[in-house]
Amino acid sequence: MQASNTPEAVAVEVIAAQPTEADSALTAQLAAEHDESLPPVTYIVRVKLETVPEATSQGWALYVGDVRIPKYWAYSQGIYFKVFDPQFFTDNRDGRLRFSRNGTEFTETGLKLTAPQAEDESARADAQLPRQDEVLQ
Questions:
Q1: pTM of the prediction?
Q2: Are the CB atoms for 69 and 62 separated by under 8 Å?
Q3: CA-CA-CA-CA torsion for 9, 13, 14, 15, nearest 10 degrees?
Q4: Which of 16, 49, 113, 119 is deepest in the core (most CB within 10 A)?
């Protein structure tokens, strides 16, 4: 059931994009902390909304399964968040996207997280990833 003023998600899409300078710095920091190599790609997870709600003092937290997405941003058709470690998609395969105001009561979107498309991987190998501003138009 849709709670009052809950964002209504209608689609989710994962797109591999070129990392920004800040993304590259964060990826290097994460790789060093976990002693592993991460690919030079930023995955943009776009959640298209029926209507983009106005910002309020009581925002909605976004979850993938039980994992709270700590930060997301608005774009013209909804919201998006970034993923730097492709293991996130394995760990949260088919994770349900949902919203909560309090972390205990959830509104299901009916959508699940998908893995990046195979063509994104081949594009990465060819260094032809789109810029993030192109992905978010």
A1: 0.87
A2: yes
A3: -130
A4: 16
